[in-house]
Amino acid sequence: MWRGWHCSILYMVLFNTWCRKVREGKMTFNKFWPLYVLEHSKLSTRIIHVIGTLSAYVVIMASYFTANSDLLFLLPIVSYGPAWLSHFYIEGNRPTTFKHPFYSLVADHKMVVYAFLGLMKKEIAIAKKSLRGPN
């Protein structure tokens, strides 16, 4: 199915888009992270994102151990599907994946780690404070 050059073209387009935005200086991950955190301020949204990200890991492992790369087509469904629905129906906002796909992917994984370490409430407070600016 989608093997070989099809995937190469997709990765090339995504990587070039990310590189262009970085070169233009429009966004850095340090600027992006507080915005990402505030768009995930509700606990239920974060839980759904964590479940989606962990489900993606399961799909990747299943694909590897069964030597069935076709399973990788489930990745957007199990990871992004529920996450996007949580943005639309729980948070009432638009996923950042559409504007910053690479940073969003990195931030998803960072949020999973922070969620397991119990640091997300602290990150939300820091993000709110940083976007308010100095008082």
> How much β-strand is present in the residues?
under 5%
Q: Provide the helix percentage.
A: over 70%
Provide a count of the helices. 6
Tally of separate domains:
1
Low-confidence stretches: 1-7
Q: How far is it from the N-terminal to the C-terminal residue, by CA?
A: 56 Å
Helix-strand makeup class: mainly alpha
Look at the structure and give the mean pLDDT: 83
* Biggest sheet record: none
> Which radius of gyration do the C-alpha atoms yield?
16 Å
> What is the total tally of β strands?
0
Global shape: elongated
Helix-strand pattern, N to C? HHHHHH
Concise summary:
This protein is mostly helical. The chain has six helices and no strands.
Overall description:
The protein is an all-alpha fold and 135 residues long. It has one domain (28-132). Helices cover 75% and strands 0% of the residues. Helix 3 crosses helix 5. The chain is elongated and about 50 Å long.
